[in-house]
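Reopening this one. Same input as before:
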Amino acid sequence: MGATTNRPLFGQDLRARQVAAETPEVRQRAREKLFALGRAYRSVDEVYPDAEQAVREAVRDLQAASRALGASPWNHQDVARLARELALDFGGYGPLQPFLDDPDVEEIMVTGTRMLVIRQGREEYVEPSGFRDEEHVRLTVDRILLRSGRRLDESCPDVDTQIVMDDGTLCRVHAIIPPVSVAGTALTVRKFQGGMTPDQYLSTGALTPQVMAFLAAAVRAHLNIVVSGGTASGKTTLLNVLGHFIQREERIVTVEDALELDLPIREVRPLLTRPANVEGQGEVTIRRLVKNALRMRPTRIVVGEVRGGEALDMLQAMNTGHEGSMTTGHANSARDMLSRLETMVLMAGMDLPLRAVRGQIASAVDLVVHVKRYERTKRRVVTEIVSLEGLDGDAEYALAPLFEMRGDPATTGQLEPVDGGRALTSRVVRKLEERGEEEVVRRCWAM
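Same output, byte for byte:
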């Protein structure tokens, strides 16, 4: 009985080994047949019939070339599997395509032939990744870059760009190749599927309705707001949410290096940076665009992220009639964000004394909102909201916390208003009262 049951298993194992051994040759022959057709495929479904036919012909050709006797070890499932792989390569983005199509996947990272996806905030390694070798990864990356007109080679070993998928999904793509990337081609694809509404943001538990009402009042009152946080903490997501509280009749100019802002405003003029071409010419920086934005008579300027000398121009805009402007920046805390702004202003090349730089920042910025992502629980939450009161006698920033964290922020903790006596004397609260937001102040700090 044992021999009878083992014989089919042994035969199936032998067949599978034969198919695996022949797959590289069949794949290459089928690829050549598809290239010979010379067709420009627009989707995976469009290429699949040709891919299936090419695989069947390649199997027959290989069997004829080897003069093999008897039936081919390839069955329908083997042909379909390889045809699907080729269809993804010719009509899509290879092993990345299923994850690009999955709305729950937020980010895809490839290093060498290893793949990691972030699905609803959770990291998952894909085993097997579907990438055969380094050449397969490069072919996939090159196909992605076709949409943006960018390229990767030894003279330009890294690229940062964005593409719009067939379904309208905007993706930010970063790739870097050997020898700069020692472990093989490194690819990161981050998907943006439109901004959240305030109600959707509340449902994530990142803040309470009371805090949301306060931030809405701050936007309506044209306070200058900086959103700080670490990488992937949700800075741009919160900036998009705050954009819902801008009056529809206002004129907004947005400045970004990737189109991530989606403000529900009638009069929005988005400006986008541009990298230099292969000759090193034609670069358009965020700083240049901020200067252009000042000439477009906007009610507010919204900069997706400041990371260099453009911080000086942004502060000048806030100080010269463009109240209500907003931006984001990388920092570990609200106070750290102010120090980062100092560094960025100095990067503008202006020989300014530190006290003057701090004076500019203290005069321009009203509110710093800090968001954080906790690695242990994957939770994103607003952890600080502080009013910038100015400078003290030692030219240090005087900060007034308006809300403080109650509970464990990594799990269920939330911001709650600080003692009314401290908050009501802050510059931000005074501005809210002066600009008609007394009711919100009353609800946050019972008077």
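So the earlier flakiness isn't reproducible anymore. For the record, The two ends are 88 Å apart (CA to CA).
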